[in-house]
Write a structure and sequence with these properties.
single chain; alpha/beta; 8-stranded mixed beta sheet; two-stranded antiparallel sheet; 9 helices
Length: 288
């Protein structure tokens, strides 16, 4: 029988306290811990398939990053940024008493992993970066920013599910049941009975008014972080990704931790790791 439960931990930002929810799979006494962190508008439930497949080997911990899912929201949206998220993860690791961890990060979750793995004395021993790197395509970031900030409400679940599917087509081919789960994980009903997305729309704040100069400074800082990583690293790239270019992914194999690179044909941003072949890639790297 699989062991899975939801818990919360209290975290702090410069403007006060907030809760971060997390989903935990496997034996809570297992010292082998895998932390899985989702993308900007996704949730911990994204990793149900991966966690189920790995929970015999690991205690798998999947947080809802603050502002998403079952977690609280920040009082000041300026702090919806990677440094705050890294701080929250340090608090989470203290709560679960994890001395060392393996890390699987999709998109934003990968940036959080990079930020933590770049710090001296960090606990990450293996790192999977799912379709993310230090250099990101500006047009793709703009597309994501526009999508994130839209306050869209749906009269029915089916309308919401169609919207989620349309914007998630780059995830690649999925069954009808899988598309239903991808949508159901991120839609909820408000008090008026409308279906809305599960997150604080202010998570889009960092995208607001971003200039090319700021983007360039961010890229320099991210490459510096990447170059400081020393643990074994795997980069998974959707071959059709508009966020992580092949050029950047190749550069990641040559500098910093000199990552191993796997490209997945017919998939854009970002692979979901719902399918056995993708799960096997993660398993092989993490347990190999």
């Amino acid at each position: 029988m699989e062991q899975v439960q939801r818990n919360t931990v209290q975290c702090i930002s410069p403007v006060g306290l907030h809760t971060m929810a997390y989903k935990e799979w496997g034996d809570p006494k297992n010292e082998k811990v895998l932390v899985c962190v989702h993308g900007i508008t996704r949730v911990s439930d994204d990793f149900d398939g991966l966690a189920r497949a790995l929970s015999d080997e690991y205690r798998v911990v999947c947080p809802d990053v603050v502002g998403r899912g079952h977690s609280g929201w920040l009082r000041d949206p300026r702090y919806y940024q990677v440094p705050q998220y890294v701080s929250d993860m340090v608090t989470l690791l203290a709560r679960i008493d994890a001395q060392t961890v393996h890390w699987f990060g999709t998109s934003m979750g990968g940036l959080i992993g990079m930020g933590l793995a770049s710090l001296p004395d960090n606990p990450i021993r293996k790192l999977v970066l799912n379709d993310i790197g230090p250099a990101m395509n500006i047009a793709a970031l703009t597309r994501i920013g526009d999508y994130v900030r839209q306050d869209i409400r749906f009269a029915t679940f089916d309308e919401g599910a169609k919207f989620v599917r349309d914007v998630a087509l780059s995830f690649g081919p999925h069954t009808e049941d899988e598309w239903h789960k991808i949508a159901a994980d991120v839609l909820r009903q408000n008090t008026d009975g409308q279906w809305i997305r599960h997150y604080d729309l202010k998570v889009a704040f960092p995208f607001k008014g971003a200039t090319p100069e700021q983007a360039q400074q961010t890229e320099i800082a991210l490459w510096a972080a990447y170059d400081a990583i020393t643990c074994p690293t795997l980069v998974v790239r959707g071959a059709e990704s508009d966020l992580l270019s092949r050029e950047t992914a190749q550069a990641m194999t040559q500098r910093g931790p000199k990552a191993k690179l796997v490209e997945l044909p017919g998939i854009g941003h970002a692979p979901t790791f719902l399918h056995a072949d993708q799960i096997e890639i993660a398993k092989e790297f993490l347990l190999g």
